[in-house]
Specification:
- By secondary structure, the chain is mostly helical.
- It has one domain.
- The chain is about 85% helix and about 0% strand.
- The protein is built from two helices and no strands.
- It is rod-shaped, with a radius of gyration of 52 Å.
- It starts with 10 loop residues before the first helix and ends in a 9-residue tail after the last helix.
Length: about 170
């Protein structure tokens, strides 16, 4: 509602004041319509025998019609101002609501960014742990392969030694 910050009254009180003015001018318009009708009747009444009074009544009628046009134009202008003010109130409310929504969306976006950063950190830790795990598996696998090869060599050496050794007669009674 930045448009309304500099106003001394609230927008609702401005609309209320405009409504009051419209009501007052509508009352004036009704009074002028009654005066026009009265002037017309008076002109008809004096038409045949008192032409001066009939002309005065017609002059008054013309004057009241001109005033009524001014009052009706003022009512139209006030209704336009009221519509414009209501439109601005709705626009200001929409902008205010939009600003609130924008703040919420920014906060959600910040939260989302933090979540994404945390996920990236987790991914980096997982990659680091995977690298460490691969290195440990490689080192353990290499040591296992080395010991298995040594065990196979020892087994074959043992077989060769046993085959090459002289046979010992067994003492059988």
């Amino acid at each position: 509602m930045s448009f309304f910050k500099n106003l001394k009254r609230s927008p609702e009180s401005c609309i209320s004041k405009i409504n009051k003015k419209i009501k007052d001018y509508e009352e004036k318009s009704e009074n002028l319509a009654a005066a026009i009708k009265r002037d017309r009747e008076e002109a008809k009444q004096y038409r045949g025998h008192d032409e001066d009074r009939a002309l005065i009544a017609l002059g008054n009628k013309k004057h009241h019609e001109d005033q009524k046009k001014l009052v009706d134009n003022t009512i139209s202008r006030l209704n336009e101002e009221k519509a414009e003010l209501e439109k601005r109130i709705l626009t200001a409310d929409a902008i205010g609501s939009s600003k609130k929504n924008n703040k919420v969306l920014k906060q959600i976006n910040i939260d989302f960014d933090e979540c994404m950063k945390t996920n990236d950190d987790f991914d980096q830790e997982i990659q680091a742990n995977k690298f460490l795990s691969d290195e440990l598996n490689r080192a353990t696998g290499n040591a296992y392969d080395k010991y298995r090869d040594e065990l196979a060599n020892l087994s074959s050496s043992e077989s060769d030694i046993l085959e090459a050794a002289p046979s010992v007669p067994s003492d059988s009674p």
